[in-house]
Amino acid sequence: MRTVSVISLGENTLHSVVEQLSRYLGEEVNVRGFSVERGFDETFDDDIVVLTGDTIYRLVYERVQTAKKVIIARRALRYEFIEPLLSIKENEHVLLVNDTEDSCAEAIDQLKRHGFDSFTYHPYYPGMSHYASCPVAITPGEPHLIPKRVQEVIDIGTRQVDITSITEVLVELGMLETSGSLASAEYVKDIMNVTKQLSSLNQRLDYSNFLNMTILDKFPKALLFCDEAGRITYFNEKMTHIFPEREMKEFGIQDLFGGDFDLSEAYSERDHIVHVRDKTLITSVEKIEDHEQVITYLLEIENYDTFQQVDRELRKKMKSSTYTAQYNFEHLHTRNASMKEMIGLARKMARGQSTILIQGESGTGKEILAQSIHNESARSKRPFVAVNLAALSSSILESELFGYESGAFTGAHKGGKKGLFEEAHTGTIFMDEIGDAPLALQVKLLRVLQEGAVRKVGGTEQIPIDVRIIAATNKDLEQQVRDGAFREDLYYRLNILPIETIPIRERREDIPPLLHYYLNHYAEEEVYDLSQYLDEGAISFLEYHPWPGNVRELMNAVEYIVNMRSVSGKLSYGELPRYLKREGASPQAVGKALHSSGLSEEEEVLLMIHRKFGIGRRKIVEELRQKGILIGEGKVKSIIHSLKDKGWVEVNKGVRGCTITEEGRAYVKEAVNG
Ligand SMILES: Nc1ncnc2c1ncn2[C@@H]1O[C@H](COP(=O)(O)OP(=O)(O)OP(=O)(O)O)[C@@H](O)[C@H]1O
């Protein structure tokens, strides 16, 4: 397997860059991360070593000599965080806080280039003895370094690796063809967001400057911007391989594409096919509006030959995963009553034929649930085909799902291609991330659902299909419908058997068993107890952690724990990954949260016994855990003793557990409720 190592100074940057590269490189490439802050003693012989700045090159120069290629990543500001900067007064003195002198200078330079050149910047990095006293500090993702006296802190987020460096990595790995479309889809999304944002910021940042950025020239696809009248305002370097530069400067869209070309028609059709001279082009048009006024049209143009190549690669990849589901309900580990109820519901749904819509946060087991439903259904021996609607560009999606007819495009396979709907015939199709389906595709999906038949791209014949549909999303589809991003009619067609997965922070009793299960999965030895790997502080932290990435995030954390533990040692809170600590609460905060209700642990237990007649010790521990109060059965036992001594509770023999006395009730009324 090919490897890419990322080396950064600090852990913050490392985590975000590793995450970003992994997203682009997928599972074929192992992306590893090292930070100077954490320390390492590897010598690197990877395919690529990505350094997050020049300073690091000086530090690790000798160790990366054996790598096939070293890339010093260019880093870009995250546009979504720029807005707060506009609230800073002109000529204000501003502290720019970063981890080294060089990275401060780099960030200042970048901000100035983006139009924030009216402030007086003063760099601040750890180890400085004197620094200017400023009311405002700006930091790219290092707020913990900001000196105490600063009144206003603006965190513009860790800078991302820019598209030129991403492209360099993809080219080096020979992956531009296969992953370039994902990178470009993300990038176009970015461009759209930025353009929208800049325009809503009243053009305070010069839009044309942004467009002129050389970055667009490095972009792997041909891009062209034009106004509503079809006048070309900008095109990138790739575009000059399709049309001569001179023509684009002199002519409008109509002259280039021919008299029949209609911008708004191309926009509504999304992947519009145009034949220009001897070329077949796929144009995908995006409209950028502000308050219903069109700011610009962005045309992404693909030569069909290149598209074919990507298409073939993708098909090869998809074919290699045989259409089977590996999971069943036994793989969903839980002790939580609502989860068990949800699984019961899913089992019932498995028996029918109707469409299922699974909604829930990322990493909560939507795919595992879909596979389990298929495996328990009458279709279990038939194909299970999964397709992720967010991962493919819209032009590829359509031919992936519906297939294409021979001769639909130049270079199309003789005899055409079967789409995934046809592959799933008599089985189940799992459409993941349905909330990200482009609107044009939504219309076509609706037609398939209504008619029970598909029509291949370039074909006229309706091919009947018998497929059970399971769709999933982590978006709020109802909200998407209200926002006009998801078709209402399709939503109702999908939402026949709705089911919701539950985030793990709402079923905290599942956290220890899941930690235990995945420790056993990753460790090479049998793990009997969490305490073999983690000390008490770390366990409490993990049990209280909000886990925004749910089970997937928990799995990653366990993998880290297994790797980072020294032989037979235990990991403490301080040694847990920093991103977890950033997302979660510190042990102090956990402690505070215990008392955030203002009640003592004893009062919490009393209240619980008051509310639930005949509750037992184990149940009390569980209920307290749900509220984020992490105490063990031993402690609960001693609290119950003390409550009994005060005459507030009675402890019954057998299974009847504890009950509250009249005196106890009076205390609750007066001290707890009142
Ligand atoms: N209850 C569970 N018990 C054990 N493992 C689980 C459970 N739920 C999820 N997982 C594991 O967590 C990982 C993520 O699950 P899955 O891919 O099904 O989530 P998802 O909701 O589809 O995520 P996304 O929306 O990000 O695609 C998988 O490896 C799965 O095996």
TrEMBL record:
GO molecular function, one term: ATP binding
Keywords: ATP-binding, DNA-binding, Nucleotide-binding, Transcription, Transcription regulation
Matches recorded under Pfam families: AAA_lid_14 (PF25601), Sigma54_activat (PF00158)
Source taxon at top rank: Bacteria
CDD domains, per database record: AAA (cd00009)
The keyword DNA-binding belongs to this UniProt entry's keyword annotation: yes
Transmembrane segment boundaries: none
GO biological process, one term: regulation of DNA-templated transcription
Entry keyword Nucleotide-binding: yes
Every Sigma-54 factor interaction domain range: 332-563
Designated name of the protein: Fis family transcriptional regulator
